[in-house]
């Protein structure tokens, strides 16, 4: 992370904590919900299968920037499916840079060529070892690993959603992140149970076991892009939701925290690690603050 970026984000955090501000800092633009996969845990793919046009996305990016957002994510669907005539995902990342966003990240399922060195991080979904990942996402594991090996930059962060199917493979994914070229770190979420995927949700005991495994991996020097100081809150779902410092915009609709905020009761079962981390950070939890500073300086 550039020193100037670090100082600006630190300043935002201090003002938010001191003045209890709800001003946003992190924003996500859903550029399409079109996806080439039908993953067992996903409730938001191909609802419309619309690829939103460049000018609309550019306007939404500007809207978020004007609201104070400085950390931007592009999400789908599958982001690498996005195209508007001759413009591809790269043009969106470059435009975000020009607007002034300090950190620009992309989320992908990894089944397309990963040629995007302009992004700070490419969060790439890998949901277990070959057997368990393919059970969730179809026969894609080998394609993803080839694309990682052939990537043009080392800005990849593996991104695992832990559920009842793949919970036994947390260690496998950690080792893969540690030992694979072009992978900078691994980041985790627990499955957030939309009504149609409730059977995949973990129990409190299962969450605790997974967190214990992640902590052990941290001790073994695996590059984990999560904060262990937030784990007790995640296990018990006792972190405050929604995160008012995070926004999502999709086809003109602006949501606080995420799209799932519209599902009654779902915030109480949130499994998103970043939501816990950011809400605890902006509540002034000192251990979370110190750990986040170390983690972002190391991996972003």
Overview of this protein structure:
There is one protein chain. This protein is of the alpha/beta class. The chain has a single domain, classed as TIM Barrel, CATH 3.20.20. Helices cover 38% and strands 16% of the residues. The chain contains ten helices and ten strands. The protein has an eight-stranded mixed sheet with strand order 8-7-6-5-2-1-9-10, with helices on both faces. A two-stranded antiparallel sheet has the order 3-4. A hairpin with a 2-residue loop joins strand 9 and strand 10. Helix 2 runs parallel beside helix 3 and helix 9 crosses helix 10.
Write the layout of secondary structure elements.
Layout (H helix, E strand, L loop, with lengths): L2 H17 L6 E5 L23 H13 L4 E5 L7 E2 L2 E2 H11 L3 E6 L12 E5 L4 H8 L3 H9 L6 E7 L7 H10 L3 E8 L13 H16 L11 H6 L9 E5 L2 E4 L16 H10 L3 H14 L1
Parallel strand pairs: 1-2, 1-9, 2-5, 5-6, 6-7, 7-8
Antiparallel strand pairs: 3-4, 9-10
Helix pairs in contact: 2-3, 6-7, 9-10
Ranges where pLDDT stays below 50 over 5 or more residues in a row are none
Strand content: 15-25%
Count of DSSP helices? 10
- Coarse structural class: alpha/beta
The largest β sheet comes out as: 8 strands, mixed
Mean of residue pLDDT? 94
Helicity range: 25-40%
Using the CA coordinates, give the radius of gyration.
18 Å
Structural domain tally: 1
Give, in spatial order, the strands making up the sheet with the most strands. 8-7-6-5-2-1-9-10
Q: Which term fits the overall shape? A: globular
Q: What does the oligomeric state look like here?
A: single chain
Total strands: the figure is 10
- Any idea of the CATH class? Alpha Beta
């Amino acid at each position: 992370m550039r020193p100037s970026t670090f100082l600006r984000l630190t300043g935002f955090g201090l003002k938010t904590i001191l003045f209890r501000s709800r001003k946003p800092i992190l924003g996500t633009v859903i550029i399409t919900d079109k996806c080439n996969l039908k993953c067992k845990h996903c409730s938001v793919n191909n609802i419309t299968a619309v690829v939103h046009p460049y000018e609309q996305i550019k306007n939404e990016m500007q809207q978020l920037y004007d609201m104070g957002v400085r950390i931007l994510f592009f999400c789908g669907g599958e982001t690498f499916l996005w195209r508007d005539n001759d413009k591809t995902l790269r043009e969106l990342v470059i435009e975000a840079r020009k607007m002034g966003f300090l950190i620009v990240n992309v989320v992908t399922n990894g089944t397309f060529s990963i040629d995007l060195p302009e992004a700070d991080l490419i969060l790439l979904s890998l949901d277990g070892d070959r057997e368990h990942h393919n059970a969730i996402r179809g026969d894609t594991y080998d394609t993803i690993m080839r694309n990682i090996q052939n990537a043009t930059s080392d800005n990849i962060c593996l991104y695992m959603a832990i559920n009842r199917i793949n919970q036994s493979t947390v260690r496998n994914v950690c080792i893969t992140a540690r030992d694979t070229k072009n992978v900078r770190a691994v980041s985790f979420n627990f499955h957030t149970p939309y009504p149609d995927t409730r059977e995949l949700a973990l129990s409190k005991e299962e969450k605790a076991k997974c967190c214990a495994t992640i902590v052990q991996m941290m001790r073994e020097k695996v590059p984990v892009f999560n904060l262990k100081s937030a784990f007790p809150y995640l296990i018990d779902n006792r972190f405050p939701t929604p995160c008012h410092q995070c926004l999502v915009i999709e086809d003109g609709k602006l949501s606080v925290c995420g799209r799932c905020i519209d599902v009654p009761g779902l915030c109480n079962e949130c499994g998103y690690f970043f939501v816990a981390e950011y809400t605890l950070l902006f509540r002034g939890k000192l251990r979370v603050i110190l750990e986040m500073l170390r983690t972002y300086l190391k991996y972003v």
